[in-house]
Specification:
Farnesyl Diphosphate Synthase, 65% helix
């Protein structure tokens, strides 16, 4: 199904909307920073499941929704840190959803929270040597996290926001755990939990914490108001991801997308139909979901949220939140343009 850019509430794509091939060529021309390129190449050697398109796609978009409080001179470093964090989160998410990788995920999700004494030596933790843990993946993620941590620790307000960052990153990992649990217990599917828990997988809060660490002018007294706004923007980002990845995920047996959750809850499809389906069966399920208007329902919800959140941007003065909302709607249009490529 070809999506059009959202209406007047969204940033308009060029008058001549590029074809998917043109859009993919545009992203292919994005140059990743050398450190990101190094880890992207190592990712290909160790896992190789995601195309470099994804890393270039998100790196290209960070300028759109990075907080305006980040000085121009710090943006390059911030974009690099957030792209590296995206790789880390993507690997963790893939581990959480794959059968047979639970042990590796359980070890990997603790890497960012190890104390200095345990982080210095992998030998201090016997788990990576277990047969059911992929040591190569753990080594890759440990090195990747070290790079991220070294980078953000040099930020001027790191000490002020690191505890918030750690909390937010735990919620991101918990979102992955929720998706894993749901895929093994499809009868628990419901939209309320999908919206409440799965949205944290978008990493909006950890991204914002990295921004704040680099934001000398941010008024900490506005942190609560900003985080309240980010809750809404995170859900908008989640919807954009849901409506452009649910078909691929359904084919993989992943039912955590809100689109599929709603289809399960309403009886449009059943857990039995999802389990062990072949390509033809998946196509029938996709068509049934579309015919019932569930995907379109989420697009309409995004538009309503976009209108509502704009009424709250004036609450915050030390960040241009109108620009952040504009950035999220640009991201939404890029989600639509890249459907099937991520």
């Amino acid at each position: 199904m070809a999506h059009k850019p959202l209406g007047e509430t969204a940033v308009q794509m060029p008058a001549e909307t590029p074809s998917r091939n043109d859009y993919e060529r545009t992203i292919a021309d994005v140059d990743l920073p050398p450190t990101v390129q190094t880890f992207a190449e190592r990712y290909d050697r160790v896992l190789g499941e995601r195309d470099v398109f994804l890393w270039k796609w998100i790196h290209n978009l960070f300028d759109e929704f990075t907080l305006s409080s980040v000085p121009a001179g710090a943006k390059e470093e911030v974009f690099e840190s957030k792209t590296l964090l995206t790789i880390l989160v993507t690997v963790l998410d893939d581990l959480a959803e794959r059968n047979g990788e639970r042990a590796t995920f359980d070890v990997a999700r603790r890497i960012p929270f190890r104390t200095a004494s345990t982080a210095d030596s992998a030998q201090s933790d016997s788990e990576p040597t277990r047969d059911d843990v992929d040591a190569a993946v753990i080594d890759f993620l440990a090195d990747l996290w070290t790079e991220i941590e070294t980078s953000i620790a040099a930020a001027p307000r790191y000490d002020e926001f690191v505890d918030v960052f750690e909390y937010d990153f735990r919620q991101t990992c918990n979102a992955m755990e929720y998706s894993r649990l749901l895929n093994h217990n499809m009868s628990m599917a419901n939209r309320t939990e999908a919206e409440r828990y799965d949205a944290y997988n978008m990493t909006v809060f950890p991204y914002a914490c990295i921004d704040l660490m680099h934001s000398p002018s941010f008024d900490r007294g506005e942190l609560g108001a900003l985080r309240s706004l980010l809750c809404e923007l995170q859900q908008m980002a989640r919807i954009g991801n849901w409506i452009t990845t649910w078909e691929r995920e359904l084919a993989e047996g992943d039912v955590s997308s809100g689109v599929v959750v709603c289809a399960l809850r309403r009886g449009v499809i059943t857990p039995e139909e999802v389990t062990g389906t072949d390509e033809t069966d998946v196509e029938r399920l996709v068509e049934r979901i579309r015919t019932n208007g569930i995907e379109s329902e989420f697009v309409r919800e995004w538009e309503i949220r976009n209108q509502t959140v704009r009424k709250r941007t004036a609450e915050i003065r030390s960040v241009d939140c109108e620009a952040v909302v504009d950035g999220i709607r640009t991201v939404m249009n890029h989600h639509l343009a890249s459907e099937g490529s991520k």
